[in-house]
């Protein structure tokens, strides 16, 4: 199952960071400073800071909640909507707990493009945007044609990639922080998706003979 595989990968990465695995820590540090130098431009810096604000967990979940409510009003698939929202909000609740447990300092780089407090692992922006993107796909899938589904999937993937790049370029997260965030959000989101599929399968199996089954 994709969700369990993602959560297992997250757990292994967490162990490697806590150990700490010297090669992984060195690779993280080698990425951080060059990435920030690439982004050391006033115009690009402004875009990065703007994207940071737009991809805040509160913004992602606020937008998701509104869209989920509209989708529920349209197709009334209560279980699907509740599972999607539960996955997104569970990720939002769990991420700071994991940050405090791992207790990893943010990157120590000269002249960071953006100063911020708190801990680094996993990235809250990455985990929450990933979970919200998957949750959005879950609630919109039944009401969209195939072409629309492709656009939702591509758009969600692009938002996740841009958010991860933003966190590293601003110097507030290591590469492994955002990777861990994606794995955490994807793992929880995929488990919610599996829950919707399991419910659909069991409903079909429970239908008495002679009652037509939905496609």
TrEMBL record:
Superkingdom of origin organism: Bacteria
Keyword terms: Membrane, Transmembrane, Transmembrane helix
Every Phosphatidic acid phosphatase type 2/haloperoxidase domain range: 81-193
Keyword Magnesium among UniProt keywords: no
Transmembrane stretches, start-end: 51-74, 81-102, 122-144, 151-172, 178-195
Alphabetical list of SUPFAM superfamilies matching this protein: Acid phosphatase/Vanadium-dependent haloperoxidase
Stated name of the protein: Phosphatidic acid phosphatase type 2/haloperoxidase domain-containing protein
């Amino acid at each position: 199952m994709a969700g369990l595989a993602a959560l297992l990968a997250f757990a292994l990465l967490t162990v490697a960071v806590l150990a700490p695995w010297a090669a992984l820590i060195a690779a993280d540090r080698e990425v951080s400073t060059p990435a920030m130098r690439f982004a050391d431009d006033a115009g690009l810096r402004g875009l990065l800071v703007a994207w940071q604000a737009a991809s805040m967990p509160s913004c992602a979940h606020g937008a998701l909640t509104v869209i989920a409510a509209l989708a529920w009003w349209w197709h009334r698939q209560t279980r699907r909507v509740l599972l999607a929202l539960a996955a997104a909000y569970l990720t939002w609740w769990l991420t700071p707990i994991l940050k405090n447990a791992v207790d990893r300092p943010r990157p120590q780089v000269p002249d960071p493009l953006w100063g911020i407090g708190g801990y680094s692992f996993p990235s809250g922006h990455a985990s929450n945007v990933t979970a919200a993107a998957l949750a959005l796909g879950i609630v919109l899938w039944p009401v969209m044609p195939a072409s629309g589904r492709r656009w939702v999937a591509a758009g969600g993937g692009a938002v996740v990639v841009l958010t991860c790049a933003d966190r590293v370029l601003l110097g507030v997260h290591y590469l492994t922080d955002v990777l861990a965030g994606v794995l955490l959000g994807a793992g929880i989101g995929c488990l919610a998706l599996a829950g919707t599929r399991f419910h659909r399968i069991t409903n079909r199996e429970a239908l008495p003979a002679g009652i037509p089954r939905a496609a």
